């Protein structure tokens, strides 16, 4: 996943949705003593986390908003006739203080939060939304933007500048710049409420997830877990000043621990904790929040002239319309569910052979599918993990693949300050040994870290601003007990390659304008470089280089490698089905018209999934509505399908590499120059087709996911 800047002008701001801004009050509390006051003097303008205190963020961000508003107003009030330079280029240069303060804040508030930062976030959410509105709904400013836009064909602009004009103009219109003054006021109100609700959702969910951790007084309930898992569970309990063992919840419906737990009651309890985490009728129940948020988004879309939130969101995406995304998903449903049903039958056979005497339930799936995996492929996760020590995976796998493809190299920098001691920093060098970027990684799970994994940036690349990228990856991999190595699963390996694919997209950016830089692309394109990068995890020349035993250094035995490859598409039916269910659910929520009544989330969820033939006893959606953070708080609303859409792109792209000699510098350099360095500087369908030689096709996806036989 990727933490995205929602609106290009508001670099770094999260998807908060609008109000009035105390433009002067903030300036007073902000002065040279604040570490954000001047641009960072660290290499690459890295945030000075050694100097930043929790109470520095709010005054800096508020002063940053005020500064940007003054800069924008100066552009709007310019007595000279509007030109590309004095309007578009000038706008690109605004908001530097806001950018550096909010980028650092977003990073820390998501990955290492605390009650102070949560309060700051809640207080800033509506102000940031109001700030966006103050720019996009500024009539004088829009008049200049529209004037240049109208004349764009005769201005002899270079292609990137022309793209900037079109993208910026569309953003203004998309944000309501063409509305009447009364409707603009209404829009601001809706945006403000939406941002407050999104933020409330995040805060509730974090607390609800923490509360729903499974606790056990003794080991008996945890039969099946390894010594290392038990030690980690003991540590997790002590970290909360509790006795016994504690299994924290991951953000998904299914919990990785279920694969090893042999006690059925424990599994069922953990599953119910997960499924009901945000529906317990207490202060952290999110159902009212999301029901209102869905309604409000529909009302906002109507105000902006769209039939639904989804129609509004998809207009500037590769898919263009909800209908196109839905048709793409609907076509996958029968293939995915047929494969999942077959997998379920295999599992039921194991249960019956062991005289289980019960019908497969979701909490049994991973435990027994692990046994099917063992029986069929003789593959044991515990046997595999010693070959995936995290540092090997990172430096000899993730980094190595990038070196082979793109010629870049990495050196750890211990002198760059970090926001938490687990964070590591690397300087990335280009082919010619010139500095290219800084890369931070923060891989281990913490209770104060939002669930899942993501990439974002502290500094974006821009030739205009003379900045090089400062990128970070965050994940929630299990933290080993002190002194123990971090041995991770193959799916964790994939997560690292995935997030690093986003990182490459950010680091290779070579654009003039910050708005068009790096990962500032459509949502249904942005997961393409990340998912594409996953392919190298299993590529022989890469895999053999990193998959070495953490104690002996021996490479993984050939027969074990063979098993991993054979098992790669194992459980694919389940995974595709749970993803499709979440993606269809997202689209159903956001296809609601403004006239729809306030929904009961549980009833809505059930009927939406039934309609799509995805209400399945044994295969629940990857996220339930009440804890679907991607769509309520992380900017993926009406956009979760993008993971599948970009799956089509990444498999299709990998097919090109496969047809042209695989992993080598020539292929890497071509991909870098035609795709990864281009940001949003060209229409993305055209950009893709120029590199690929044709439009993307779903065939490669069917092949790589082993779905051909189910078709
Ligand atoms: Zn991603």
Protein model, in words:
By secondary structure, this protein is mainly alpha-helical. It binds zinc ion (ZN). The site of zinc ion (ZN) has 6 residues, from helix 17 and helix 18.
From the structure provided, what is the oligomeric state, counting identical versus distinct chains? single chain
- Helices and strands: which structural class? mainly alpha
Q: Tell me roughly what share of residues is in helical segments.
A: 40-55%
Biggest sheet character: 5 strands, mixed
Rg value = 25 Å
Give the overall shape: globular
The tally of helices reads 27
Q: Low-confidence stretches at least 5 residues in length (pLDDT < 50)?
A: 4-27
Mean pLDDT: 93
Task: Tell me the fraction of residues in β-strands, as a range.
Answer: 5-15%
List the helices and strands and how they pair.
Layout: H1 25-28, H2 57-76, H3 84-92, H4 96-111, H5 115-136, H6 139-150, H7 159-174, H8 181-211, E1 214-216, H9 227-239, E2 245-247, H10 264-275, H11 287-303, H12 309-314, H13 322-353, H14 362-377, H15 381-384, H16 390-406, E3 409-412, E4 424-429, E5 435-444, E6 454-459, E7 470-477, H17 490-507, H18 523-534, H19 540-546, H20 558-567, H21 572-590, H22 601-611, H23 629-632, H24 642-659, H25 665-676, H26 684-692, H27 699-704
Parallel strand pairs: 5-7
Antiparallel strand pairs: 1-2, 3-4, 4-5, 6-7
Helix pairs in contact: 2-3, 2-4, 2-5, 2-6, 5-8, 6-7, 8-11, 13-14, 13-21, 16-17, 16-19, 17-18, 18-24, 21-22, 25-26
Residues 1-2, 498, 502, 527, 530 line the site of zinc ion.
